[in-house]
Amino acid sequence: MKRFEQYTKHLNVMKCAYKEDLNNEFIVSGIIDKFFIQFELGWKVLKELLKYEGKDVGLSGSPREIIKASYSCFDFLDEEIWLKMLRERNDTTHIYNEEAARELVRHILDEYIDEFDNIQKAIEKKYGKELENIQ
What we know:
- By secondary structure, this protein is mostly helical.
- It has helices at 2-14, 25-52, 57-60, 63-73, 79-91, 98-127.
- Helices cover 73% and strands 0% of the residues.
- The protein is globular.
């Protein structure tokens, strides 16, 4: 699955955030931008997997609907974290405050990267070589 390949590639870049200078405003902004991209790839990967599994919501669901359906379908998804990510993703366009941006980066580093990584590993374990056939 092409989107899953992109998800994995971007996640590997995002993991570099742990080594960066979080006092640098440009770095903080970059981590938030990477989070936005990673979240978008994540829910769209889940959407494609739902379609593959024959779930109708995978045909036209919103991010929230996809997350809810994915939680019901896949035992590897932490619905609470994904819904929190969705809220924070939606709020990223309204972050004008430096402290709010740093708080989001703390969430990204403390929770979200691990969740993205868990999802990657779980999908690889569940689907293996089948991923190549999922469109």
